[in-house]
Design a protein that fits this description.
Length: 345
C-alpha cells in the first residue's frame, strides 16, 4: 500500500513538473525547447525579410508585429476583427501556450507578449535572447515559411490588463500609483520631443528599458561598431535587476510607460519576474498622454514645428547638393570613358 502511494505521489509530482511554463514572463533557450516539445506556438515578431533569413523551426510569422497590429498614426491596436484575421490566418491562437521572440533584447517581443495577453492569452512567454540566443545554444534554424493551420478566432480584449489615459491622468493627480518611465533620459527631460509635447508624467521615475540589459549601451556601441555582436542586450542578472528597481514597492500598483507601450512592455515583464504583482503597461503611453493637453506634465516642452521645417529644408538642400555632385562626377566619368587617353575629343 505504501509503495503504491509513493508511486502515485511521484506520478503527481511528475505531472506538476510537466505543466506548461508559459506563466513565466521570460524564458531561456532550454525553456523554448521544452515548450516546443509540449506543442507550444512559437511566434517570430520580426519583419518578414529577417524571418526568412533564419528563424526557429516551425515559428509562425505575420511580419513586423509592431507595424502590422498597430495603427501607424496613434500606434494603438487596430480593430479587433482585423487582428482576428491576421493572427488566425497565421495559426496563432492566444488561448494556446505561446513563445514570442525577435532579436536579443528587442522590446517588440515583449509587445507581442502584451498583445497576446490583452487578447486573452494566459500562457505567454518571451525568449529574451531571441534568434541569436537560439543559435548560440547550438540549435538549428530554417528559412522556409512555416505553415501552421489557420484558425477561426473570436478575440475579446481585456482592457483591465492595461492602463488607459484617463486612468493614468486621474491616478497621477492622486499620487496613489508608482509610475516608471522606460524612455531615454532625453525624452524624460523634454529635450527629445517625439509627440505634440515633451516631458514626463508627474512623479514618474525614469529607468530606460535598456537598463535591464547586461550592457545598457549595447545599441549605441553597435551603431558605432564598437562591439561585434549584441550579447550585451542579454538580460542582466537578477540581483542587478533587484538593485535597479530597489526604490519601488513590489506590493504597490506599478504603471510603466514609454512612447507607445513597446519599451514599457519589456520593463513590465522584468518587474513581473522580480515579484511585482500589480504591473500594468500604459499602452497609449506618452503619445496618448501628451495629446491630453489638460494632463499635467513635468519638464514640459512643445514640439517646434518651425524649427523642424527649417531642419527639413536644410536637409533637402544638402540632398540636392549631393545629387548635383554625384551627377557631375558621373558625367565626368562618362566623358573620360568615351575619350581614350592621349586623344582630344
Amino acid at each position: 500500500m505504501l509503495y503504491r502511494f509513493l508511486k502515485l505521489l511521484a506520478l503527481a509530482l511528475a505531472t506538476l513538473v510537466a505543466l506548461p511554463a508559459g506563466a513565466a514572463p521570460i524564458i531561456d533557450a532550454a525553456g523554448v525547447k521544452d515548450a516546443i516539445a509540449r506543442g507550444a506556438i512559437v511566434w517570430d515578431v520580426r519583419a518578414t525579410p529577417l524571418y526568412r533569413k533564419g528563424h526557429i523551426p516551425g515559428a509562425a510569422s505575420i511580419g513586423d508585429a509592431g507595424a502590422v497590429l498597430r495603427n501607424p498614426v496613434t500606434e494603438d491596436f487596430i480593430e479587433t476583427a482585423q487582428i482576428e484575421k491576421i493572427l488566425g490566418n497565421a495559426g496563432i491562437d492566444p488561448a494556446k501556450e505561446i513563445i514570442v521572440y525577435a532579436d536579443r533584447g528587442s522590446p517588440f517581443a515583449y509587445f507581442g507578449r502584451l498583445a497576446m495577453m490583452y487578447f486573452g492569452g494566459s500562457k505567454v512567454s518571451v525568449f529574451h535572447d531571441g534568434i541569436e540566443g537560439w543559435q548560440e545554444a547550438g540549435n538549428a534554424i530554417e528559412t522556409a515559411d512555416a505553415q501552421r493551420p489557420a484558425v477561426a478566432l473570436k478575440l475579446t480584449p481585456r482592457p483591465e490588463l492595461i492602463a488607459s489615459t484617463e486612468d493614468v491622468v486621474a491616478r497621477a493627480k492622486r499620487g496613489d500609483v508608482q509610475i516608471v518611465d522606460a524612455r531615454t533620459a532625453g525624452e524624460y527631460l523634454g529635450n527629445d520631443v517625439r509627440a505634440i509635447r515633451g516631458g514626463h508624467i508627474p512623479g514618474a521615475v525614469n529607468i530606460p528599458y535598456e537598463q535591464n540589459w547586461k550592457d545598457p549601451e549595447t545599441n549605441t556601441k553597435l551603431s558605432r561598431r564598437q562591439m561585434p555582436d549584441n550579447k550585451g542586450a542579454g538580460l542582466a542578472a537578477t540581483e542587478e535587476l533587484k538593485k535597479l528597481y530597489a526604490k519601488l514597492d513590489p506590493t504597490k500598483e506599478t504603471v510603466v510607460y514609454c512612447q507607445s507601450g513597446v519599451r514599457a512592455a519589456e520593463t513590465a515583464a522584468v518587474l513581473e519576474t522580480l515579484g511585482f504583482g500589480k504591473v500594468k503597461v500604459y499602452d497609449s503611453s506618452w503619445l496618448g498622454y501628451a495629446a491630453r493637453l489638460d494632463a499635467p506634465a513635468e519638464r514640459e516642452t512643445f514640439f517646434n514645428v518651425g524649427a523642424m521645417n527649417g531642419r527639413m529644408a536644410s536637409m533637402q538642400r544638402k540632398i540636392e547638393d549631393l545629387e548635383r555632385m554625384i551627377g557631375e562626377l558621373y558625367s565626368s566619368h562618362n566623358a573620360k570613358a568615351a575619350c581614350p587617353a592621349g586623344k582630344t575629343c
